[in-house]
C-alpha cells in the first residue's frame, strides 16, 4: 500500500519515472497472485528491451507458475458463482414477496372498493 501511494505521488508530481510508477500504482484486486521467481540475471536486464528468446522464457515460466495456481483460481471462481446464484435467488424471492404483498394489499383495498362499487352500480341499475 505504501509503495502504491508513493508511486501515485510520483505520477502526480510528473517525475520522469512515470512508466515505472504506473506499473506499481495500477489498480488491481484479487485473491490469487501469480509471481514468477526472478533470478539476478533477470534483474540485471530489467531496464533493457527483452529479446525474443527472453520473452519466450518468461512466457514459459509464467505458464508454469500459473498452472500451480489453477486449482485456487477454480475454487475461488466456484465460490464466486455460488454466491452470485444465491444472491440472484434471494433477490428473486424478495421480488416475489413484494409482488405478493402488493397483490394482497390491492385485493383487500379493491375488495372494499368493489363492494361499494358493486352497490353503487347495482343501485344505479335499479
Helix count equals 4
- The geometry reads as elongated
Summarize the amount of helix as a percent range: over 70%
Q: What number is the mean pLDDT?
A: 80
Give the N-to-C terminal Cα separation.
83 Å
Biggest sheet character: none
**Proportion of residues in extended strands:** under 5%
Number of strands: 0
In terms of per-residue confidence, which ranges show pLDDT below 50 for 5 or more consecutive residues? none
What string gives the helices and strands in order? HHHH
Name the structural class.
Answer: mainly alpha
Question: What is Rg?
Answer: 32 Å
Fill in the keyword field for this structure.
mainly alpha, 79% helix, 126 residues, 4 helices, 0% strand
Description:
- With about 130 residues, this protein is mainly alpha-helical.
- It is about 80% helix and about 0% strand.
- The protein has four helices and no strands.
- The chain has helices at about 1-15, 20-25, 40-45, 50-125.
- Helix 1 (about 1-15) packs antiparallel against helix 2 (about 20-25).
- It is elongated.
- This is Triacylglycerol lipase SDP1-like.
Brief summary:
79% of the residues lie in helices and 0% in strands. The protein has 126 residues and is mainly α.
Q: What is the element layout, followed by pairings?
A:
Layout: H1 2-13, H2 18-25, H3 40-44, H4 52-125
Helix pairs in contact: 1-2
